[in-house]
TrEMBL record:
<dbReference type="InterPro" id="IPR050721">
    <property type="entry name" value="Trk_Ktr_HKT_K-transport"/>
</dbReference>
<protein>
    <recommendedName>
        <fullName>Trk system potassium uptake protein TrkA</fullName>
    </recommendedName>
</protein>
<dbReference type="InterPro" id="IPR003148">
    <property type="entry name" value="RCK_N"/>
</dbReference>
<dbReference type="InterPro" id="IPR036291">
    <property type="entry name" value="NAD(P)-bd_dom_sf"/>
</dbReference>
<dbReference type="InterPro" id="IPR006037">
    <property type="entry name" value="RCK_C"/>
</dbReference>
<feature type="domain" description="RCK N-terminal">
    <location>
        <begin position="1"/>
        <end position="120"/>
    </location>
</feature>
<dbReference type="GO" id="GO:0005886">
    <property type="term" value="C:plasma membrane"/>
</dbReference>
<feature type="domain" description="RCK N-terminal">
    <location>
        <begin position="238"/>
        <end position="354"/>
    </location>
</feature>
<feature type="domain" description="RCK C-terminal">
    <location>
        <begin position="374"/>
        <end position="459"/>
    </location>
</feature>
<keyword id="KW-0406">Ion transport</keyword>
<keyword id="KW-0630">Potassium</keyword>
<dbReference type="GO" id="GO:0015079">
    <property type="term" value="F:potassium ion transmembrane transporter activity"/>
</dbReference>
<dbReference type="Pfam" id="PF02254">
    <property type="entry name" value="TrkA_N"/>
</dbReference>
<keyword id="KW-0813">Transport</keyword>
<keyword id="KW-0633">Potassium transport</keyword>
<dbReference type="InterPro" id="IPR036721">
    <property type="entry name" value="RCK_C_sf"/>
</dbReference>
<feature type="domain" description="RCK C-terminal">
    <location>
        <begin position="146"/>
        <end position="232"/>
    </location>
</feature>
Length: 468
C-alpha cells in the first residue's frame, strides 16, 4: 500500500515505523528536517520537506499515486485542508485526519466519508485525546487490569492481568480454570508473558506463575469472575480518584467519572483550572503542581485509590506517579509517550504506563491491512498484536472455510482465541470449523505474522471460473 503521512511528530513517526515494517511504501512530510533525517536513518521510507497543506508539497509527496493519506500534524487546520486538497486534486481513496479541537469534533456534519459538496471529504477523524480517555475508562472498569480491548462491538473482550501469589490459579495448570468457574463462563488464555519479555504460548498443561502477565478472552459480563481467579483477592473499585492535568484528557476523565466517584483534579495553570472548574459539577479542582509533595499530602493523597497523571509532560507524569505511589496510593496510571522511559517506570512502581501514540496507531492499524481486518491492536509496546479478521468466500475460494482450527496451517506464533458468529461468541478449540463471515480473533506474538494471516484469509476464484 502507498501511504503518505503528514507530520513526523510522535504519532506520525510511530505510524511510519509500523507501516514501513509491514512493507508498505511510506512517505513522510514535515517542516522539521532533523525529524525527517532521523526517520530516514532508521527506516526504509521516503521523506519530503515542506508545509503539509501546500499543493506543490502534496504533489511532491506523490499523492496522485497514494492509496491513503494520514494527516497527523500538530495543527488541526493543516490536517483538514490537506485532506480536502487530497480529495479535490488527487482523488486519494482514503483520507484520515488527526483533529484535537473540540469545536471540530462536536460538529461531525462538517465532515463526510461520502461525496458531499457541503462537507469536507474525510473518511476518518481521530482524536488521540478521546482515544486515551476511553482507554483509561476501560482500565478503571476492571481494577488491576493492564490492558482492555474490545472486539466486534464489545461482544468479546481481551484483558491483560497480573497473576498474584495468592490467586486461585497460580501454580496450577490452565486446564483447571474451568473447575473454579461456573459452567456458563467460557474463556481462553491466549498468551502469558513471564519475567518481563519471555513469551509462553499457553496449552492446557501450562502452569501460571505469580507475576505472570496473562492475556485472556471472554464476554464482558464474565470478565470479573475470571479476574478474581487470577488475583489474590477481589480488588475494591477505585472510589477516590485524583487526576493530574486539566487538559482535554484530564477534563473528560473527570467529566465521565464525577458522577460515580469522588474526583480531585490538579492543574498548575490558573486560567485552565478556572475554566475546568466552571464546566465540572462535582469535581474538586485544585490549582497547583501535581508533583508537589506538600500539596499531595495536604489533599490527603493516602486516601486516594487511583492516581491518574495525564499532563502534557512525560517527566511530570512519571515523577508525580512515583511520588503518589510512595505516599500510599494503591494504583497509578501515567501517560508516557517517550519509550525510553518505560524501563524506568517498570522499576519504580507505576502500575500502568499508557502511550497516546501507541493507542492512536492501534486505532488506525486495521485501515492499512490487506483483507477484511476490522481490528488490529498493538500490545506490549508493539511486541505483540491482537487482530479481528473476517473470513470471506466459500470452501472453493478460501483456504480456511470448512476447515477446523487444527487443520489450518497457522504461523507458529499465533493463538486463535475465539470466533464471533452472528453475534455469538464461540471460544476456540481445535475441532471448531471456520464458516463464511466468521469474525476470528487472533493473538500474534510477532506482529510481522500479520502478512501471513492476510494470505490465509485471502480468497480466490474457483478453478472453473478462471480463464485458461
Amino acid at each position: 500500500m502507498n501511504i503518505v503521512i503528514l507530520g513526523a511528530g510522535q504519532v506520525g513517526s510511530s505510524l511510519a515505523e509500523v507501516l514501513a515494517n509491514e512493507n508498505n511504501d511510506v512517505t513522510v512530510v514535515d517542516i522539521d528536517r532533523l525529524h525527517l533525517q532521523r526517520l530516514q536513518d532508521r527506516l526504509d521510507i521516503r521523506t519530503v520537506f515542506g508545509h503539509a497543506s501546500h499543493p506543490n508539497v502534496l504533489r511532491q509527496a506523490g499523492l496522485e499515486d497514494a492509496d491513503m493519506l494520514i494527516a497527523a500534524t500538530q495543527n488541526d487546520e493543516t490536517n483538514i485542508v490537506a485532506c480536502h486538497l487530497a480529495q479535490i486534486m488527487f482523488k486519494v481513496p482514503t483520507k484520515i485526519a488527526r483533529v484535537r479541537g473540540r469545536s471540530y469534533l462536536d460538529h461531525p456534519e462538517l465532515f463526510s466519508s461520502q461525496f458531499d459538496e457541503k462537507a469536507i471529504n474525510i473518511d476518518l477523524l481521530i482524536s488521540p485525546e478521546n482515544l486515551v480517555t476511553e482507554y483509561i475508562l476501560q482500565l478503571i472498569e476492571y481494577p488491576g487490569s493492564l490492558q482492555v480491548i474490545d472486539f466486534h462491538h464489545s461482544k468479546l473482550r481481551m484483558v491483560a492481568m497480573r497473576a498474584y501469589q495468592d490467586g486461585l490459579l497460580v501454580n496450577k495448570q490452565i486446564n483447571t480454570l474451568k473447575k473454579h468457574l461456573p459452567s456458563a463462563i467460557k474463556t481462553r488464555i491466549v498468551a502469558i508473558y513471564r519475567n518481563k519479555d519471555e513469551i509462553v504460548m499457553p496449552t492446557g498443561e501450562t502452569v501460571i506463575r505469580a507475576g505472570d502477565e496473562v492475556f485472556f478472552l471472554a464476554e464482558p459480563r464474565h470478565v470479573p469472575a475470571i479476574i478474581a481467579e487470577l488475583r489474590q483477592k477481589k480488588e475494591k473499585p477505585s472510589r477516590n480518584i485524583m487526576i493530574g492535568g486539566g487538559g482535554n484528557i484530564g477534563f473528560h476523565l473527570a467529566k465521565a467519572l464525577e458522577g460515580d466517584h469522588l474526583v480531585k483534579l490538579v492543574d498548575h495553570n490558573m486560567q485552565q483550572a478556572r475554566e475546568v472548574a466552571e464546566q465540572l459539577d462535582k469535581t474538586v479542582v485544585i490549582r497547583g503542581d501535581i508533583s508537589d509533595k506538600d500539596l499531595l499530602l495536604e489533599e490527603n493523597i493516602d486516601e486516594i485509590d487511583l492516581f491518574i497523571a495525564v499532563t502534557n509532560s512525560d517527566e511530570a507524569n512519571i515523577i508525580s506517579g512515583m511520588l503518589a505511589k510512595k505516599l500510599g496510593v494503591r494504583r497509578v496510571i501515567a501517560l508516557v509517550n517517550n519509550q525510553s522511559y518505560v524501563e524506568l517506570i517498570q522499576l519504580n512502581g507505576i502500575d500502568v504506563a499508557i502511550s497516546a501514540d501507541s493507542i492512536t496507531t492501534s486505532h488506525l492499524l486495521h485501515h492499512t491491512r490487506r483483507g477484511d481486518t476490522v481490528k488490529a491492536v498493538t500490545l506490549r509496546r508493539g511486541a505483540a498484536e491482537a487482530m479481528e479478521v473476517v473470513a470471506h468466500g466459500s470452501e472453493n475460494t478460501s483456504d480456511i472455510i470448512g476447515k477446523t482450527i487444527a487443520q489450518i496451517p497457522w504461523p507458529s506464533d499465533i493463538t486463535v482465541g475465539a470466533i464471533i458468529r452472528k453475534d455469538n461468541v464461540i471460544i476456540a478449540h481445535r475441532d471448531l470449523e471456520i464458516e463464511a463471515e466468521d469474525h476470528v480473533v487472533l493473538f500474534l506474538t510477532d506482529p510481522n505474522s500479520a502478512s501471513a494471516i492476510a494470505e490465509l484469509f485471502a480468497t480466490s476464484e474457483p478453478s472453473w471460473f478462471r480463464w485458461n
